[in-house]
Amino acid sequence: MNTKKIIVPLIVLLAIAVYFVVFHKDKNLRYIPENADAVVVMDVKKLTGQYLFSLASHPSQWSGNTGKGKSQGSLKNAGIRIPDFLQIFHLKNTRFSEWYSILELKDPEKFITFLKKQNFVAKGSNRFRRGQVFLAINGNYCIAGTSDSAFEAIRKQIIQTSAHSVWDADQFIDHSAGSISFISGKKIQNFSIDVRDHEIEIKNTANTGFFNTLASRLQKENHFLDLELDKENIKNFSRFFNNNLADSSHISNLKATADLEQVNDTIISYEYDDNFNEVEKKTFQKITQPNYLIDIKSTDPNKTWEFFQSEKWINSENQFTAIPFQPNQVSRNTSGVIIKSTRKSISMAPQQKENYILIRNRAVLYSSLKTLSTKEKRIISDIDYVLYTNKSKDYWIKIKAKNGELPLILRW
What is the pLDDT of residues 328-338, one digit of tens each? Predict the structure, then answer.
């Protein structure tokens, strides 16, 4: 038998199979509502390719934790149809924390079994919840979200209606592992997401030389938090919290530095003895508190002060109550307002005269997050720092992990 006649067709068939498994993608994004104003799209096949390449490069991981994975339930065998592009969206006029996604189900019953293994609690009417993750199963679809307030509207708009708009993945992703996009009418502003060995990068520019230079300068300090923001950046961030803040407060610049400290917190309660006399009882617990200094520059310090008072952020003892970490003291001067914690003084980090937010990881931070799972704590503990920077219309975010033997895609 001529082996060439067998091998050549096999190679062709293998090449076709690899193309459809790895490279061919359905770029039709069917699960983004018309009233979405922000969209996260992840290229599942590209990430899978990165994972397989990283796995092939690290033989020590070939055995994996298969026993653990089987006991907890495998996502691959959970009755879900794995999409080529995962679509996560935010709807107009909803809270910033509300994000949703729609999954196709191959086997709804198998998916429900998977949810039970993952400790999701059934809420009736095919709805489930675990923590801040909400799920609603509708036939062969599952709506997932960080809230369930828009589930019914999403079901009517996407699942029950076939005439809704279908987006194309190329409108959001350009050779990156994913993207975060903001939609305003027909305008789409895209930020690529790239997953590297020890960092995740989100940006809307390929020119990152300036940002890397700034990141190097900031590494000379060691505060938990260091930030500088101009009026435009303050306006952008205030949209998530208080739309009136940027314009009504007359703030032109914000500079802040903070460190974390673990302190003893006294809890006073009362019990009754055998004679029904009230007895004071003191207990102590360790809590994590920041020491901080915030310098707010204003075009009109008096109006800034009046705005804070109108919002009831300044009490009779001149404490800034909008910051939940007390005690602090707020005062005004000829250039603006100063807010500082009073438990321990802290010096301001050097002025960079740039726009950035730098948050460094601290063991006391993730150790105090008691509501997180062991895996979530492990992921947070693995992060070195998070850096946001902006210059003109260019934006850049880096989530830097601690250097390790394995790349992120195998660690997380």
Answer: 999 999 999 99
